[in-house]
Task: structure prediction
Amino acid sequence: MLYLASDHAGFELKEGLKNFLTEQKIEFEDLGCDSAESCDYPDFGHALAEKVLANPESRGVGICGTGLGISMALNRHVGIRAARCMSVEDAELARRHNDANVLVLSGRQTTPELATAMLAKFLATDFEGGRHEGRIKKIEI
Ligand code: RB5
Result:
């Protein structure tokens, strides 16, 4: 299962990703927001973190204007590794090296095409484990 969440500044990009997911027949749940009306990214970041932690096999996508604020909210939750990505390589390495469970995107700096390519790579890439296993364990304090 893939959970999606954004504030108003990520709403449009989130809608575009939903079209891609529907075409690809990838199951998802949209946790909001539901319009481009101003709202607060922590509300959606925390809701997304709770869903991903409750379903350990799931992944998430969080979007705000820059991707920074929603990352901060997500990464306050132990067990969430939210990676703000700006390239397909970021999305790949976030999975391979960091076992990221949430892809974070910038609604204002990312085109729908790049967002789709990053999401496809994020979903298709496995964690490498090995030397990275101990490193991600050290993230939790
Ligand atoms: C909203 O204007 C904007 O501040 C928010 O989407 C995000 O970029 C915060 O980090």
Q: What stands out?
A: The longest helix spans residues 41-54. The pocket of D-ribose is lined by residues 7, 9, 41, 64-66, 68-69 (CB under 6 Å). Residues 6 and 63 are 4 Å apart (CA to CA).
